[in-house]
């Protein structure tokens, strides 16, 4: 486990650097908003598309991996909905539930690249492609009473989903990237990792968590303990090999999605509370990731 923790040090060091730059330098919110859009709409899609096109697996070979990933996310969604039994503020509960099952694609791809290289990145990309519509639909459904429409349109315009789908389609058709273009995608993908982690750090803020610690504990326990534990049990039940298990456990033990705050604000939810959950989840990921990554080969 110590090896896995040290392996993650550069990624979390970049998150810490992003936080420091945001609060200690002239690079304020307007700068980081532009960087995040660049990463989200250009750099990470390039990484997902190129790794999906050049993947060495077949879709049939990752069916068990997808089944395990979707199963773990479904368990997280069910546990998140059970938070309503805590009788916390309804608006706060609906806003925070998404943090129990959504995942930070930036960190997932960065850790996958560090831990397993392009093969694991492409597998995590497949899991993201299936996880994004499921988690976004569940998150929007929970907030629906507060407004918000156009879920299908949002999914069809999601650049990470579209890039992975395009890459998988090209891979299934046996298409190859021109040799002249491959280095361009490699450089874009390399830039996406560092800039994506910096934007995660720049977005950290812990206000709002004091509103309901019981609800927060349940949601974050689901995100960082129950979901990856279900994933590990499914990996064993489905006899996934170490590489597939590593991709699955990286995908399911990363912090929650930073975009959860944006969704909560857009749909009239409790934005400050969600921002606190996202930030604390990012810190907890430094613990949950190495613990579950250590189980990948067991």
Please give the structural blueprint:
Layout (H helix, E strand, L loop, with lengths): L1 H23 L4 H25 L9 H19 L8 H7 L8 H39 L7 H6 L2 H14 L9 H21 L10 H25 L4 H12 L5 H8 L4 H23 L5
| Total beta strands | 0
Overall average residue pLDDT: 84
Shape: globular
What is the straight-line distance between the termini?
12 Å
Number of helices: 12
Q: Approximately how much helix is present in the residues?
A: over 70%
Low-confidence stretches: none
How many domain units? Answer: 1
Structural class: mainly alpha
CATH topology-level fold name: Na+/H+ antiporter like fold
Radius of gyration: 18 Å
Strand content: under 5%
> H/E order of the elements?
HHHHHHHHHHHH
- How does CATH name the architecture? Up-down Bundle
Q: Describe the largest sheet.
A: none
CATH hierarchy class name: Mainly Alpha
Write up what this structure looks like.
The chain has a single domain (2-293), classed as Na+/H+ antiporter like fold (Up-down Bundle). Helix content is 74%, strand content 0%. It is built from twelve helices and no strands. It has helices spanning 2-24, 29-53, 63-81, 90-96, 105-143, 151-156, 159-172, 182-202, 213-237, 242-253, 259-266, 271-293. The protein is globular, with a radius of gyration of 18 Å.
